[in-house]
Design brief:
Elements lengths: L1 H10 L3 E7 L4 H10 L6 E8 L7 H6 L4 E3 L7 H11 L4 E4 L8 H6 L4 E5 L11 H7 L4 E8 L9 E8 L6 H26 L1
Parallel strand pairs: 1-2, 1-4, 2-3, 4-5
Antiparallel strand pairs: 5-6, 6-7
Helix pairs in contact: 2-7
The chain binds 5-O-phosphono-beta-D-ribofuranosylamine.
């Protein structure tokens, strides 16, 4: 029995993963934490940020994960992304609070290999400013969605959703806090789900 365990352990090759961020990076931090477990299917091999002041970059530094900054206004930024994904042998991409659209070219190359986390129960409330719109719309429930990325904004198929009931007293900050708590469970669960199907 132990031998089987041993063989299984060595058969699992972690997917080299790149996480794209723009800000706080709490999802990045959470994924780093999970990926340090031997049986979690991915290794965070690269972090890409379009914002040099993104707090999340501190986690890359702290855990000695290579990171690159991109300037999305420069024409060559797409090439910089592609060459680095190649350099680090990246086969899977997680968007974690990345505020820019991913190019169609990248989506084509990484077909069904890019996932995103969004702070609403998609297809409701695509795009920005979700918590404000959720409150204005007097929703009873909200939550988060992990989904595949396609050419349409927040439009790819859902992998996992988690929800909670909104309290009458909840303001935007409360919704954010409650949603992020669920996100930190949903993102790793979605990754495990994807790789246990393959
Ligand atoms: C998350 O709420 C996610 O749903 C959205 O951006 C936020 C990123 O948070 N796409 P963080 O940077 O991971 O803390």
């Amino acid at each position: 029995k132990n031998q089987i365990k041993f063989i299984k352990f060595f058969k699992m090759v972690k997917k080299n993963t790149c996480v794209f961020i723009s800000g706080q990076g709490s999802n990045l931090k959470n994924l780093i934490f999970f990926s340090r477990d031997n049986i979690f299917p991915i290794k965070i091999s690269l972090v890409i940020s379009d914002n040099k002041n993104a707090y999340g970059l501190n986690y890359a530094k702290k855990f000695q994960i290579p990171y690159i900054l991109i300037n999305t206004r420069s024409k060559s930024y797409e090439n910089k992304i592609l060459s680095n994904l190649k350099k680090y042998n990246i086969s899977f991409i997680c968007l974690a609070g990345y505020m820019k659209m991913i190019s169609n070219n990248l989506i084509r190359i990484y077909q069904k290999k890019i996932i995103n986390i969004h702070p609403s129960l998609l297809p409701k409330f695509k795009g920005l400013n979700t918590f404000n719109r959720i409150l204005k719309n007097k929703e009873k429930k909200t939550g988060c969605t992990v989904h595949y990325v396609n050419e349409k904004l927040d439009g790819g198929s859902t992998i996992i959703q988690k929800s909670f009931f909104i309290d009458k007293k909840d303001n935007e900050l409360d919704l954010k806090r409650k949603t992020q708590k669920l996100e930190h469970r949903a993102f790793p669960e979605a990754i495990i789900k994807i790789f246990s199907q393959n």
